[in-house]
Automatic annotation (TrEMBL):
<keyword id="KW-1133">Transmembrane helix</keyword>
<keyword id="KW-1003">Cell membrane</keyword>
<feature type="transmembrane region" description="Helical">
    <location>
        <begin position="151"/>
        <end position="181"/>
    </location>
</feature>
<keyword id="KW-0812">Transmembrane</keyword>
<dbReference type="Pfam" id="PF01810">
    <property type="entry name" value="LysE"/>
</dbReference>
<feature type="transmembrane region" description="Helical">
    <location>
        <begin position="6"/>
        <end position="27"/>
    </location>
</feature>
<keyword id="KW-0472">Membrane</keyword>
<feature type="transmembrane region" description="Helical">
    <location>
        <begin position="118"/>
        <end position="139"/>
    </location>
</feature>
<dbReference type="InterPro" id="IPR001123">
    <property type="entry name" value="LeuE-type"/>
</dbReference>
<protein>
    <submittedName>
        <fullName>LysE family translocator</fullName>
    </submittedName>
</protein>
<feature type="transmembrane region" description="Helical">
    <location>
        <begin position="193"/>
        <end position="210"/>
    </location>
</feature>
Amino acid sequence: MIDLNVLPLYLTAVIALLLIPGPDMLLIASSSLTYGRKVGIYASLGNATSGILLTILAALGVSALIAMNPIALHVLRLVGGAYLLKMGWDCMRTHPDDAPQELEHSNKMASTLYRRAVFTNLLNPKALIFFVLFLPQFVSTHVATSSGEQMLVLGLLLNVLGLLFNLFLVTTIGVFGQSLLKNEKFRNNQHKFMGLIFFILAIWLLASQLPTPPSM
């Protein structure tokens, strides 16, 4: 379904992208460090879920239509920034006494971080533009498959490799997270740490300059 001659170059580009720190990596790493390996895994799955949705939108051409509308991108960025600020504020308002209770119910924290990872990526216009600008570069005219189908396969491959990389990151960081979770002082402030991460992500999104996609 894709040009195998293009595949080595594509895989090289994907690996290079995965090694560049970004908001996704920050969210997943901080989730693992703050709440443990299980929560980090769910955050990774949330990131992969949003990536698959963005891939489908790109393959259908919906992402390109949104990316061509500066007002839509601006609104999306404001909504995404507001969402991250709300998440940060909610974390900051959590009472320290709630931390041990939530740690005992890791399923709740895992599902919460899964949802936050999904929406953080979906509400990031830079992620949407990335799929519009990146995937079409590796669409080949030397295969009978349509450009949409090729973008779908390329995007799914990107998400699978990204998930594997993030799971490796979670496993590595989880070792340090376990020791931190045994520290009472850290447990009393873990929500504030996570709130700070969301504030950083909000500033990162609101202050970033969006690339301009080529005109259709």
